[in-house]
Amino acid sequence: MAKNQDNLLNTSALAHSLYSDILRFVKSKVNQTEDAEDLTQEVFCKIAESNLEEISHVKAWIYTVARNTVIDYYRSKKHITSPLPENELPDFPVEADEASFDHLNRCIRPFMEQLPTDLRNIMVWSELEGKPQKTIAEQLGMNYVTLRSKIQRGRKKLGKMISQCCQAGVPQKITEISTPSSCQC
Q1: Per-residue DSSP letters for 54-118?
Q2: Where in the chain is the domain with CATH 1.10.1740?
Q3: Per-residue CA distances from 91 to 3, 4, 56 (Å)
Q4: Which of 42, 13, 37 is nearest to 27 (CA)?
Q5: CA-based nearest residue to 70, from 62, 80, 60
Q6: What is the pLDDT along the chain (185 residues), one digit of tens a residue?
Q7: Which of 62, 80, 106, 149 is 20 to 30 Å from the Cα of 165, by its Cα?
């Protein structure tokens, strides 16, 4: 029993002497002050649970515990996702209605017509008609990976054409939005 009390007193004295150094170390690794304080507390809880008599370089070991605690902190944060509360979810329709799809199709088709023929056909089948990319690749006798690359290239070209045509800029008021008369949107 006396040995446990001595160990507790030694741990307490050690905590008082190293607390600010360990806190400063953890703060240098973690952005939030509150998190750094919590992690430092966790480090000293681990120290209190350990048998310091078996450790030859106590100060170095404590810094190792602190470093590992910070690493564990970041590992655990990677897997945490916070869902949006129900009242903050955007109110989007589950399925796009046919009128919206037709309008979007009419807006994009003139830009697609400007693409080279082989790329245009692939883009129309994939993006407007909704054919699966694997099916298109099989029909054209093309490698699936090659087809995916062509679709990505087509999307980039379409995006560039649309942004060049429709440079509305950021208006001061919503009523000031206008597209150039040459724009096909």
Answers
A1: G-SSHHHHHHHHHHHHHHHHHHHHHT---PPPGGGS----SS--HHHHHHHHHHHHHHHHTS-HH
A2: 2-77
A3: 65, 61, 61
A4: 37
A5: 62
A6: 444 444 444 556 766 788 889 999 999 988 888 989 999 999 988 888 887 777 788 888 888 999 999 998 888 876 555 555 555 555 545 455 667 667 777 778 888 888 888 888 998 888 888 889 999 999 999 999 999 999 999 888 888 887 777 654 444 433 333 444 555 55
A7: 149
Q: Which CATH architecture has domain 2-77?
A: Orthogonal Bundle (1.10)
Q: Is 150 exposed, middle or buried (0-12, 13-18, 19+ CB in 10 A)?
A: buried
CATH 1.10.10.10 domain range(s) in the chain: 98-165
What is the dihedral sign for C-alpha 93, 94, 99, 100? positive
Rounded Cα gap, residues 164 and 108, in angstroms: 14
CB 170 within 8 A of CB 153: no
CA distance linking residue 136 with residue 150, whole number of Å: 12
98-165: which CATH topology? Arc Repressor Mutant, subunit A (1.10.10)
- For 79, the token pair is 């897997």
Query: What 3-state DSSP class applies to 50?
Result: coil
